[in-house]
Structure formats: structure tokens, C-alpha cells
Amino acid sequence: MPSSIEVDDILGGSKTILDLAAQTLSFAPIPGLDVAATALSSIIAKVQQTRGNDETARDLARSINDLATRMKTTAESVQKIKSEMVSDSQEAEPNVESSALNERVKVLQKRLKELEKEADKIPKHKFAVKFFRSEKYTDQLASLKNGVDDALRDFAIQGQITIEMLVDDMANEMERLVRGVADIRHDVLNIRHGVSNIQYRQDREHDGKILEALPHADANYRSAGNASKSGYLKGTRTALLDELHSWATGMNTELQDRPVYVLSGAAGTGKSTVAYEMARRLEEEGLLGASFFFLRGSEDRNSTRLVLSTIAYQLAQLQPILYPHIVGAAEDHLKHGIHQQMEFVIDELITGPLRKVSSTAKPSVIIIDAVDECTEAAQEFVPRILHLLLKCVLDLRDQFPLRVFITTRPELHIEQALESADFSSITRPFKLHEIPRVVVDKDIELYLEERIHKIPSHAELLTTHPETVSMLTKVAEGLFIYAKLAVDFLRSDPTAWRKISIYCFPAIHTMGRLRWIHLISSISQYWRALFLTSTLRRPFEIGCGKSWAGSRCFETISPLMYGRRSWVSRPTR
């Protein structure tokens, strides 16, 4: 005969199962299962009070334990499926119920409530001795056991449909619902994305119209008019370009407090080529803010009229972090007119927007090339715009890493503006003529070797006439423009080298007038004029043209020289 302790252990185990499963039972999407569990716990407590120790009591305890276990595993299965669905789909918790499963729980709940009442009729411990081993007591326990067994059987299987099958059906329904919710959510996101795209395009179109309304010139380094400045040869000007790059990126500790870099040099020393190459490199690195290349003779590029608004326009295009601030500022600015005074333009379109950006932003570099080619009211407006630009940099010094790279010839009104005591602490002046001649000649030799080697009609020139490069370098006297013109001259005329070697070496200035006339009459007009003026090392005086070439020749060449005004001058008399 089993002891009462054994029966108590079984019942206690059943009670523990139900207690541990209480949270799962309450959260499982099976209404009423927690109520059924409470009823079963009550039955267990009542049976424990009887202190029964016969076979019937032990069998009852085991049946109760089986039912408690089945209820717990069912709840856990449903909860696991539910949790996996939520985790996989990342959707809100699905609310799914199975009518068949709910009906079984409802029947179980009703049956256990009835059994709970039946358990109340079993004698308690103080009367147990009197009824011990009596048929009535045994029949009560047996009846209670049969009721629990029936409840377990009906809960576990009905009409060949097991509780596991119902749980699986519920899982499938939950999966279907989750997929449906996911599809709906996906559709909603697509709609929102589409609406956002439409709104984004509308906003960009609106912003684009505002920017385009800003007066701006086609003056950036990519402009077709700057093609002649794109002839940088890798390996030349390395020290200068390295310093410029370290200055632009803020990596040069000695120049960190010098956000304005001024490169000056005579005509033909390669300033614009350096500016072009720096603009190209900085744009690749996302550091180019804007570039404005002045051009003598160009209506939009030989004055200060469009410089600042063009810089603002490009800053918005090239620096995404500045775009919304400049667009907003431009919208307000344009309410006061299209063409405004330079002070208003720089304050409202450049200084103001840049102040709204974090000081930890990456540097933005503005490149302004050939300031000396700004000829419209130059004495008045060039110093003024330079003052405004340098003041802008100074004002933003602790708020935004703005850098300005300027190239120019050493003209008095420009130098006075750039060397002002107000801005001497933020400028880094660099004079090209201070570069050792041997360094410049080495770069020119490299340029000539590389370029002449690629001219089909003169491919063997460097072999048959190894003195070519050294002779042309010597005649260039440190001017890159001469090297470029010499290469262009060779490219334009298959017999150019013979003419150069006959008429240009060793001393051009000792050449007779007839030889020069013969030379210029036998080569193309354009290169004839450019090569002649660069070789003579002095500007071609308009008043002297007729004396050496005749009026018809000069009248043809003169228009070609217009684009090279730096090589042309009028006699002072």
C-alpha cells in the first residue's frame, strides 16, 4: 500500500507544475485555461486534506498530475508559437483564437468546477480514521479519479482531433495573420515611401528653383572655358601641392591658423594650373566648397558682380551639410532683390548659413583663381571683395572650418588688400618666384619630356635630338607658359622643330628680322603669335605689329591674341 507521503508528493508535484505555469497560462492566448488551472489546484488541495494512502488515492493523484502536465504543455506550446511569430515578424503581438480549442478549454473548465464541488464531499483528515478503507471513501476517490480521467481524455482528444492538432491549426492561423499584417505593413511603408519621395522631389524642385534664382556665373573649374588650365602633369609642383593639400585638410599644424592661402606669381608661372588641380583633388575628397576662375574679357567672369552669389550657389551644390541652410537663406535674401550689394550677399548667403553648421564639420575650401583678371572697376571692387571674404573667414574662424585659396599676379591693389594688418594673422602668402629655379626647371623638363613624347609627328624627337628638352627649358626661363606654348607649337606643325632649331637657338634675340618674318609666315597664325610673344619675353606691342609683319598679318593675328591679353600691351606713347 502506498504511503500518504507518496500521494502527497505526487499531488505536491502537480501543484508545483500549475504554480510554475501560472504566468504562461495567464498570457497564453487560450481564454479560460488559467481558470481551469485554478480549479484543478483547488481539487489538489482538497485531496491533500484527506491524507489518503490507498491505491485509489495514489491513482487519483497520478491522474491529476497527468492533467496538470497536459494543461501546462499545451499552454507552453501555444505561447512558444506566439513568441516565435512575434520575433520573426517584428510585428505587434498577434491576437488569434481557436474556437475549437476554446471550446475544449470551456468544457474542461466546466468539468473541473464540477469535480471541485465533488471533492468537497470527501471527508477531511479529522474524520479520515472513521472512514479509512470504507467503501464510501474509496468510491468517492474513484469517482473523482474517473472524472479527472474523463476531463483529461476530452481535453486531449475528441473525434480523432488531438489537442496538438488544434494547437498546430492555431499556429498556422497565427502565421497567416502575421504574414497578412506584414504584407499590410509593407504596403503602408511603400505608400509612405512613395509619398515621401514625391514630397522630397517637390521639395528639391522648390529648393532648386530658389538656388537657380541666385545670380551665378559658369566660373567653376569644370567650366569649358577653363580647359586650357587642366594640363597638370603628375610629378610636377609636388611640394607646393602637398603643402596646399595639408593646409586644406587641416593636417598641417603650422598652417592651421592660416585659413587663407595666397599664391602669387608672374604670368605664365602655372598658378591657374595649380588652382585647377587643387579644385579637382578637393572635389574628389568632398572638400571643395566652390571655385571661381576669373577670366579677362568674359562679361560674367571679369568682375566681382557674381562672385559671392556664385560661391553661395556652389557651396549649396557641393556641400550637402550646407544645402538646407543656404536654400533657406537664399529664399529670404531674394525677397529683397536679385542683385544686391556685396555686403548683404556675403552676410546672408555665406556667413549666416555657415554659422548654423557644427564647428566639427569637415573643412570646405573656396578657390578663387586669377584675381588679377578681374578688370571691371578693379581698383575699387577687387580690394573690397577680398576684404569681405577675409573678414568672413575671420568671423567664422571658431565656428566653421572655411578655407580660401587665392591665386593672383603681384599687382599692387591686390597685394595691399591681402596684406592688410587686419588679416595678416590668417593668411599664408606663397610667391612662386621664391621656388628655387632648379626645382622649376626640373618640373618644366618633366613636362616637356612627357608631352613631346606623345606628339606623333615628333615622337622620335627626344631620341634624335636629345638636347631638345634642355634647350627649351633654358629658353623658358622658369615659365610654364613657354613650355606649354612650345608643346602646342610642336603639335600644330610637323616641321615645327626644324624651324625652332634653325631660328630659335642658340640666341633668338640675335636673329635678323628677315628670319623672323620667314618663320611667322610659315607657321599657323595662332601659334605664330603666341610663340613669338612668349619667346621674345615681352608683351607684343600692338603699335609695332605693322612694322615687322605688315598690316594684313597683324590684322589677322590680333583677334587671336585677344584671349591672351597678358601677352599683349599697348605702347605707352
TrEMBL record:
Keywords: Repeat. The keyword Phosphoprotein does not apply. Residues 244-409 form the Nephrocystin 3-like N-terminal domain. The keyword Repeat applies. InterPro entries: Adaptor_Cbl_N_dom_sf (IPR036537), MLKL-like_MCAfunc (IPR059179), NPHP3-like_N (IPR056884), P-loop_NTPase (IPR027417). Pfam families: NPHP3_N. One of its GO terms (biological process) is cell surface receptor signaling pathway. This is Nephrocystin 3-like N-terminal domain-containing protein. It comes from Grifola frondosa (Maitake).
